[in-house]
């Protein structure tokens, strides 16, 4: 997660997120008539919707969609927050423009054009500022496993120290690190919470980096996932559970990258898929199974590319088709049985 997002208070983030979404809608409404003739204006109903969301955000009650969006699309969310920041600056700019028009007694189009250009410049400025901030953070973690580290960092969202202080979670030099608002390393038990107060995540940090097993929970308190860390780096088993407590996936990390067997399970506990990673790359035979445990298909991978025999089977175990891959491409024709 990016530093400038992580250090924001939840309320400010909600306000900026709402304003950013409204800004995107405004630009859409502005340029859509040039593409598709509209029989009526969309701006009035959108303003009503925006005011509702803004009031909700002001009271820290904005929809959970904001957090889900931040989890799933952090880069897009960063740009949306930048547009939100530009929105509030644009309000100040337009207040100045209106005051100047009233003071000079000139209601001509010059003031409106000037306000539009200033608003456009503010949007471009904040988008560019965010872009370069993301670039700087990306360039600070040029080590093996950066993608995995950043993916794991996104899971540590809205973490708080034992004293209840909001923490920054980011990837730094190939490992995850927690700091307070003054960028001092956090230590002890760290937790994040659902809006209702239930524990969402619990981890232990020493000198700012997570160590040991970190746990994520469902709202009912059941364990959702467990990930092992060593000195801020994913290292060891990762297990994911259903709300009923059954394990549905497990794999392993070694020094920040996937290494070893990755298994998924059906609800009845039988293996669904099985594959092997070597230093973060698929290598070896990948197998998928029917729910009754019968082999469904198998491929062979060499350094992340399909290479070798590929077979598919009927539920009764009879071979249905087979093919040969070389360098990721089928050699010859697939043969059906």
Quick structural gist:
With 337 residues, this protein is an alpha+beta fold. The protein has helices at 3-6, 10-35, 43-58, 65-72, 74-104, 109-139, 146-155, and strands at 168-172, 175-179, 188-193, 199-206, 209-210, 212-217, 223-230, 233-241, 247-254, 257-258, 260-265, 271-278, 281-282, 284-289, 295-302, 305-306, 308-313, 319-326, 329-330, 335-336.
Mean pLDDT: 76
Q: What integer value in Å does the Rg equal? A: 26 Å
Instruction: Assign an overall shape.
Output: extended
CATH architecture of the largest domain: Alpha-Beta Complex
Q: N-to-C terminal Cα separation, in Å?
A: 50 Å
Amount of helix: 25-40%
| Class inferred from helices and paired strands | alpha+beta
Hey, roughly how much beta strand do the residues contain? 25-35%
Largest sheet: 18 strands, antiparallel
Q: Number of helical runs?
A: 7
CATH class assignment of the largest domain: Alpha Beta
CATH topology of the largest domain: Outer Surface Protein A, domain 3
Low-confidence stretches: 138-150
| Count of discrete domains | 2
List the helices and strands and how they pair.
Elements: H1 3-6, H2 10-35, H3 43-58, H4 65-72, H5 74-104, H6 109-139, H7 146-155, E1 168-172, E2 175-179, E3 188-193, E4 199-206, E5 209-210, E6 212-217, E7 223-230, E8 233-241, E9 247-254, E10 257-258, E11 260-265, E12 271-278, E13 281-282, E14 284-289, E15 295-302, E16 305-306, E17 308-313, E18 319-326, E19 329-330, E20 335-336
Antiparallel strand pairs: 1-2, 3-4, 4-5, 4-6, 6-7, 7-8, 8-9, 9-10, 9-11, 11-12, 12-13, 12-14, 14-15, 15-16, 15-17, 17-18, 18-19, 18-20
